[in-house]
Design brief:
3 helices, four-stranded mixed sheet, mainly beta, five-stranded antiparallel sheet
Length: 200
Amino acid sequence: MYAEYGPQGFVPIVYHISDALANQWSNQRMSYYGVNATPWTCIDGVRVGNYNYSGLKPFVQSRYSTDRPMTINVTAVYNKTTQMMKITTTVKLTSDIADGSWYIRPFVTENSVNGSYNYVLRQMDSSELTIRSTNQEQKYEWEFQPGGWTIENLMAGAFVQNDSEKFTTYNIYQGALVTSITITNDVATTSFGIIKAMLR
């Protein structure tokens, strides 16, 4: 599915549970969705019962015809010197949204884990989305230290959910994906601007 639609049209996340790749964030998502068996497949937060390509494709196509009330832009930068990663998510509303418990959920996934597992959720965060009116914009920066992952195999993204709909639709209103992490180094600055990159 990802191969057909690409990062501009399909954002894959695999939540592992009850195995060596499970973590506190995948377990939180399992609890959020009420997962009680696997496989468990959701398209835009809505559970679907078909797990093969031909079964899933109609659900993906139906979501393409759904109006989206916002846009999302995501950037991801890893600093080799500080060993910190910063994911910046910017949400801009293209129409008004109703009151509720809206959240931005940035995440990091890893490909080729143990040589075979892709889109594995490594870490996730959550921040309240407080804007409600058309053209309003909100930025959220999430900084953390990755835990022994292969940086070149990471992807980062974010999506928006309204937790007021929890246990009913679980709808994801918009998502975005960055397929490669920008790798940089510390930069020393003065009032005159950048003067030296401290390469190590």
